[in-house]
Amino acid sequence: MPGLVLHVTGARPNFPKAAPVLRALTARGVEQRLVHTGQHYDQKMSDVFFDQLNLPRPDVDLGVGSGTHARQTAAIMTGLEDLMLAERPALVVVYGDVNSTVAAALVAAKLGIPTAHVEAGLRSFDLTMPEEINRLVTDRLADLLLCTSADAVAHLGNEGVDPARIHLVGNPMIDTLLANLHRFDAEAARAAHDLPARYIVATLHRPGNVDDPADAAALVKSVHAVADQAHIVLPLHPRGRARLQEAGLFDHPALQIVDPLGYLEFMGLVRGAAAVVTDSGGVQEETTILGVPCLTLRPNTERPVTITHGTNQLVTRENLPDAAAAVLAAGRAETWNVPPLWDGKAGERIAEIISRVLPRS
Ligand code: UD1
Ligand code: UDP
Fold it and tell me: Ligand 2 centre and the CA of 44: distance in Å?
């Protein structure tokens, strides 16, 4: 079909990034199909985003489910190859750095179908992260590289990417945040979880933190030392749940473990939090906009702009308790910076660039 745009999503962080792009392209009358690979499938990891973000239901659900990296990526590729051969899209749009992202970029490239990568150019320079491998491969293959920050543009330049293919567009995840800000009810979220006035929100799911039993045990000790200082609510990602439970995560009276939350409930909690402890990519960005101190339990970040222009700092398991004490003592800032172009208009900019490259029907 001339001009058809195929969006490939599959994991939780993809959905808030895709929503504003789909909306802006719909407003321009562009023909689109939305694919869900099925990488994430629990109601709270997937469906709830479609319900809450007014995302259209996927036209196609590949239903691949969980698996090793090779098995999951291969299953997504096989499903997408059949689909792309049948639909022959003019452009495939991929989001972020998950296995669904790289699988789609590989299939499209081999079929000679142009690809746009939303959130291109982010680099942790840490190849032990599966996401870094996915970012490098996806960016090497993509035709349109749509960047959230100036550092990402610079990385792509350093890697020899033609500047004509690189566009600084801002952050579509922040479009979703700003469009829904009025729906983030901190007080209702606090009451729903019966939390004290001062509380911390935590999320933990990176393989480097939760996969190995020794890492998990050290992590639990560190997080418990934070819970000694302030009540923590932790919506726990399914990855590592069993490992963290074995390591004793659940055995602290001021650490409240809950299932993954819907986007609006989660953001309501974050909005009202005294601080956030996380290893998530997206949460580093969201706390930056909301002005909530963010302690990122990672040795590096592909989102340094959240440190230079935001509320984020990197911490280790060793220094997390002291860092938490410092941010709790300091309280939340009255004013803070936000990164350039994180203004709610990234989806519009992306749609404008995509519209320019689509064939006229
Ligand atoms: C994936 C992404 C990661 C992203 C995270 C966001 C890759 C390589 N990783 O990690 O970059 O930060 O999503 O949430 O793509 N599971 C369920 N229910 C689900 C989904 C997963 O129980 O709906 C469990 C399964 O046991 C599965 C495990 O979680 O094996 C890991 O899921 P997977 O999608 O492979 O990786 P994530 O750790 O979720
Ligand atoms: N999120 C949510 N409920 C939760 C945890 C996270 O709605 O319980 C949202 C939040 O907006 C976050 C996004 O899901 O930015 C993606 O989070 P995740 O940490 O899974 O992925 P990452 O950004 O690390 O790839």
Answer: 11
Question: What CATH homologous superfamily does 5-171+342-357 map to?
Answer: Glycogen Phosphorylase B; (3.40.50.2000)
Give me the pLDDT at residue 176, please: 98
Q: Give the number of other CB atoms < 10 A from CB of residue 22.
A: 23
Length of the chain (residues): 361
Which helix H or strand E contains 92, and what residues bound it? Answer: strand 91-95
Q: Whose CA is nearest to atom 29 of ligand 1?
A: 239
Domain ranges of the chain: 5-171+342-357, 182-330
Sign of CA dihedral 159, 164, 165, 168: positive
What's the pTM value of the predicted model, to 2 decimals? 0.98
Please write the tens of the pLDDT for every residue from 208-243: 999 999 999 999 999 999 999 999 999 999 998 999
The rounded Å distance from CA 13 to ligand 2 centre is 6
In the predicted structure, residue 361 carries a pLDDT above the cut 70: no
Query: Contact, 274 vs 325, CB < 8 A?
Result: no
Question: What does each C-alpha distance from 158 to 155, 161, 163, 226, 303 come to in angstroms?
Answer: 5, 8, 10, 40, 17
- 182-330 has the same fold as 5-171+342-357: yes
282 CB less than 6 Å from ligand 2? Answer: yes
Q: Which CATH superfamily is domain 182-330 in?
A: Glycogen Phosphorylase B; (3.40.50.2000)
Residue nearest to atom 15 of ligand 1 (CA): 98
Q: Is 263 in the pocket of ligand 2 (CB under 6 A)?
A: yes
> Any idea which ligand is nearest the CA of 284?
2
- List active site positions: 205
For residue 299, count other CB atoms closer than 10 A to its CB. 12
